[in-house]
């Protein structure tokens, strides 16, 4: 598994942070003027951005985390449902599955009605895949969790199409079957900053499993695949004082210098 470089980490972290504001000047980050497609949910809120440049063979899909009361309520649906609607042979978090299968409002004149968020993404990616571009998926919080499932789905449809998956502050999304069947273990980097409690959610050990390589940013270092019990112990120690401060994207970006020593 190739190490994640600092410039890669910084780029994906910045894009995840900039995905939250409604206005994002993508050309300032090397993408073509027409190199962005925005995917909305059923309420007209931005869920994903697809970014690319003709000068680069990498398409970046950026997925936002929970950003409304409805999204947070969906995270409470912690039972698992079959992901066969996505063509996948396992069960995943029911709330996150709903967020991916919800209807997507059209964004452009050429868009058609009645497509889900996932279907809209596939429509936008199809011509870019036909051009020979490969896909990197990155996301924050629930966006990172959904990104893993979307990447696995795309990889099964188009073998070797996924370049890498980079998630920030990601909760788990699937059970042991998901962990066992996930095809991108060697291309997935799951980044956790200090004592981010969200990375331990849902609070159901052995019912939910993570995938990929854990990179834990803590005490001026990058630790790889640290056992959850160690991280959890330190998390509980600081929980009463700073419960969610480590979950902010700004915290991840400030820690980009750790990658110089990694």
UniProtKB/TrEMBL annotation:
CDD domains referenced in this protein's UniProt entry, alphabetically: Lipase_3 (cd00519)
The protein's name in its UniProt record: Lipase
Start and end residues of each Fungal lipase-type domain: 60-204
Pfam families in the record: Lipase_3
PANTHER family: ALPHA/BETA-HYDROLASES SUPERFAMILY PROTEIN, FUNGAL LIPASE-LIKE DOMAIN-CONTAINING PROTEIN
Membrane-spanning segments: none
Organism: Vibrio tritonius
Top-level taxonomic group: Bacteria
